[in-house]
UniProtKB/TrEMBL annotation:
Residues 2-231 form the ABC transporter domain. The keyword Isomerase does not apply. Keywords: Amino-acid transport, ATP-binding, Nucleotide-binding, Transport. Coiled coil: none annotated. One of its GO terms (molecular function) is branched-chain amino acid transmembrane transporter activity. Belongs to the ABC transporter superfamily. SMART domains: AAA. PANTHER family: HIGH-AFFINITY BRANCHED-CHAIN AMINO ACID TRANSPORT ATP-BINDING PROTEIN, HIGH-AFFINITY BRANCHED-CHAIN AMINO ACID TRANSPORT ATP-BINDING PROTEIN LIVF. InterPro entries: AAA+_ATPase, ABC_transporter-like_ATP-bd, ABC_transptr_urea_ATP-bd_UrtE, BCAA_Transport_ATP-bd_LivF, P-loop_NTPase. This is Urea ABC transporter ATP-binding subunit UrtE. GO terms for biological process: L-amino acid transport.
Length: 231
């Protein structure tokens, strides 16, 4: 489904990612781990096309998207929930979700019921402005907006950052439900080791902008955690 090969990217003169390669298979939840500042968000932005790759390739469903604009990638079936949510504060909840339909493969103005069913509180808030919601509610909104286009691959950049534990539990349940349905793969960036171990199938750890380790849940032992993740 997704194959990133020897990707190099950065900002200005700074190179952040160096020869990063990873894969996400259909229906799989792949978790991207690492300490702060190692390039996790940079990698997600590079996959989404928000940051141009200097070297390497991004191939999705056998299509080379390395030079494609973010909109093209979105319409190809890649959904994105950015760090910080980035909802539109002056638009209503309903209008924010509608914007997700812009990335749908078929033209429609009908929000898919399954996008909202996972967050039943949102329809009760349709007329409220996005900026009036709590952080947790905004995260649910950003998630629903991404699901509205029925993506085959969902990029989640720290969806649990700065939100209350009850919403974290809801997001865990949503990821598990998506995984059980088997229609959408997920590439997840998250700091909480407990959270990613509860949902992930495969794990990559970044260190200094490169993949330092990869493996399954059973391989993620205490020595690896201490070496690459413990602060």
């Amino acid at each position: 489904m997704l194959a990133v090969q020897q990707l190099e990217a950065g900002y200005g003169e700074s190179i952040i990612l160096r020869n990063v390669s990873l894969k996400v298979a259909p229906g799989q939840v792949v978790c991207l781990l690492g300490r702060n500042g190692v390039g996790k968000t940079t990698l997600i932005k590079s996959i989404m096309g928000l940051l141009k790759a200097r070297k390497g390739t991004v191939v999705y469903n056998n299509s080379n998207l390395t030079k494609s604009a973010p909109g093209v990638r979105a319409k190809s079936g890649i959904g994105y929930v950015p760090q910080g949510r980035e909802i539109f504060p002056q638009l209503t909840v309903y209008e924010n979700v509608l914007l997700g339909l812009e990335a749908a493969k078929t033209k429609t103005r009908d929000i898919p019921p399954e996008a909202i069913a996972k967050f039943p509180v949102l329809p009760t808030m349709y007329e409220r402005r996005g900026g009036d919601l709590s952080g947790g509610q905004q995260q649910q909104l950003a998630f629903a907006r991404a699901l509205a286009s029925k993506p085959e691959l969902l990029l989640l950049d720290e969806p649990c950052e700065g939100i209350q534990p009850s919403i974290v539990d809801d997001i865990r349940d949503v990821i598990r439900a998506i995984k059980a349905e088997g229609q959408t793969a997920i590439l997840l960036v998250e700091q909480s080791l407990e959270f990613v171990k509860s949902v992930g199938d495969y794990f990559y750890i970044l260190e200094k902008g490169a993949v330092a380790w990869e493996g399954g849940l059973d391989d993620l032992d205490e020595e690896t955690i201490r070496m690459y993740l413990t602060v």
